[in-house]
Amino acid sequence: MTTKDPLIIKERLQLEHVGIQKASLRPLTVTLESDHFLCVRETIAGTDRVAIVDLHHPDMVYRRPIYAESAITNPEYLILAVRADYGMKIINMESKKETKTSEPLPESILYWRWLDPGTVAIVTQKSVYMWSKEGGTSPQRILTLSNTRLGDCQQIVSLKMDQDRNWMMIGAINLQSGNIVGQMLLCSVNDEDQYEVIEGHAALFTEFRLPGNKHTSTLLCYANIFTDGTGQLTIRALNGPHDGDKAFSNVTVEIPLAPDSDKDLPIDMQVSKKHDLIYILTKMGFVYLHDLESGLWLYTTQFSMDSVFAYTKYQPSDGVLAVTTKGHVVSVSIDDAALIRYIIGVLQNSNFALHIASRNNLPGADELFVSKFNMLCAAMQYREAAELAAGSPKGVLRTVATVQKFLYAQILPNQPSPLMTYLHILLERGPLKKFESVELCKPAVENRRLTQIQKWLKTDKLECSEELGNLVYDIDVKTALSIYLKAKAHERAVHCFAETGQVKKIVVYCKMVSHKPDYISLLRKVLGLNKEWGKSFVKTLVGNGNSLADVRKMVDLLTEYRILRDCRSSVLDALKSNRPSTAALKTRLLRMSFWLKDYENTERDEDVIDTPTRDQQPLVGSDQSMNTIETGVTRPDNQVGSDQSMNTIETGN
After folding, report:
1. 27: which DSSP letter?
2. Rounded to 10 degrees, what is the CA torsion of 389, 390, 393, 394?
């Protein structure tokens, strides 16, 4: 099978097709601050004007008569910065209004660019300024440059800063003996005396985290083609490692130049953060692809036979966007599906393929990972196998089968369990999956290490599931409840609320998650644990007069647990409506309320009521009469008022 090239080259636009004339396609006339807008200064029929092409919508071209020595478009908004002998202006192209002006600076401007959507960076012979598009301030000097720092440079061509704005690189070019020589000034923004002059044409700052490190390193990368026709790429760290991290190893490698390109020169560098690979773009239309960590060369191709003079980051694919002298706007991007196969098939470098696939979570090396994993396990190199499985791209080895393989692997003398080794390596990298979380917690539950489980939960290392909750339930209900809540195991969660006496939360939670439990079963569970909790739960169930449970079943249950007397007002509230279906139950409870009122007014012991004499015949509404009406049976006198009688009245038997 033919191996595809690892780069995708695609023409995005031909500028002549949107009305940009060939005569305007030259350096300094065309500026490209982002992949959103391209700015062109034109002179048509003696009239100076600025045209802005929306590269996201190429049929939209904005033109306005403006005289300017230089014009640059904001990277995100339709806002134009222009400068001439009158000073500098910021113009909103949609409203056609000037939003900000500045008097000319005391020194000539050698270079300027939009550093971000809110700031313009300006380089003069003696200083570097920042100019905000907001507010009324003039450009603010952030760095003073001595004349010797930039030497005898003939043209400033670039300015780049690191993520935290601590470092700045100013790029310049000179003509020496017919050769274009690059000179760059690296300087600290916080310490003007800390600077370095570097021979090179193109540079970039980027953040990179070595595999296994917790923090990133700030890297400076720069490329050069020397007058002897050799190319060189240097990658170095600008800061030391954090505690516990490995130091980045600075590298300098050769750029294998294409044939007949000794007069070529790098004009831009971009990094694909998705792949940690560097694009080196040249004036003759070549692109060189190198690894950011090691500097390893991977690929070279010429994407344009015409010279390139404008370039920027291409955000949609983390690639490069370039403009040629013939008006072609071309993107260069890495092909995810082809990169690993190219490294394996063409470069014959399986080890690097495994490394980059693991480091950047890239597809294409599945078979390599499975084969090497099985080989390591067979050799009982369990830690190496665990590291490989933990770093496998797209989780190709993070499966139940892998867990089972480690679970039943032979434990070597004086060595930890292969499964625990694997799971703890995964913990260092991030959260575990459901089945991994359960296996990790099994030994902790067996040894009742609840604090350790709670720590993992607090740091979001475990994926909560009903199975994990059931496991932890055996040692702590409250911790199990927190797991059930995160896992959305609603039925288990409400039962834990019940078991821990948090009965008022049950209804609130069920409404919040649209869960409809069997409230009668829950009430029985609560009553069996604590009658006071049960009374509180009844009030919650019949709140606002709308019972969430079957009132008849509730009355039967309260009677069974002999607390209907304490809950009768709450139950009656649930029967306030005049529905015919509740009439009989309402009558029953009202009659019972009268009986209970008479009962409460007596001064006798709560558990013993004297038997009435035969002369004290019950009247209508008395206890025995109520009993007769309710049940249809006249009970013996000696049972009136007894516990059995109370039970009989409440149950209607």
Report:
1. B
2. 110
At residue 238, does pLDDT exceed 80?
Answer: yes
Helix (H) or strand (E) holding 11: strand 7-14
pLDDT-derived band at 620 (thresholds 50, 70, 90) equals very low
Residues 6+ apart with CB under 8 A from 483: 457, 464, 465, 468, 469, 472, 489
Residue 549 neighbours by CB distance under 10 Å = 20
Q: Greatest CA span in the chain, whole angstroms?
A: 138
495 phi and psi, to 5 degrees?
Answer: -70, -35
Q: C-alpha distances in angstroms, 445 versus 432, 440, 471?
A: 17, 9, 7
Q: Which residues, other chains included, contact 145 with Cβ-Cβ below 8 Å and sequence gap of 6+?
A: 124, 125, 126, 127, 128, 185, 187
Q: Which long-range contacts (CB under 8 A, 24 or more apart) does 399-404 make?
A: 400/435, 402/373, 403/435, 403/436, 403/439
Position 485, amino acid: L
Q: Which of 412-416, 633-637, 649-653 has the highest mean pLDDT?
A: 412-416
Nearest to 19 by CA among 503, 290, 49: 49
> Model confidence over 72-119: pLDDT tens digits?
999 999 999 999 877 899 999 988 888 999 888 888 899 999 999 999
Do the Cβ atoms of 71 and 81 come closer than 8 Å? yes
Containing 504, the helix (H) or strand (E) segment is helix 503-513
pLDDT band at 317 (very low <50, low <70, confident <90, very high): very high
Rounded distance, CA 564 to CA 53, Å? 80
Question: Which segments of 23-178 are extended strands (E)?
Answer: 30-32, 37-44, 47-54, 61-64, 70-73, 79-84, 87-92, 97-102, 109-116, 119-124, 127-132, 140-144, 155-161, 167-176
pLDDT in tens, 132-174: 998 777 899 999 887 556 656 778 999 999 999 999 999 998 8
Residue with tokens 């490190």: 213
Return the pLDDT at 558: 81
- CA–CA dist 247, 241 (Å, integer): 5
**CA distance linking residue 356 with residue 343, whole number of Å:** 10
- Residue 634's pLDDT band (boundaries 50, 70, 90)? very low
The answer, yes or no, to whether residue 472 has pLDDT greater than 90, is yes
Integer Cα distance of 500 and 496 in angstroms: 6
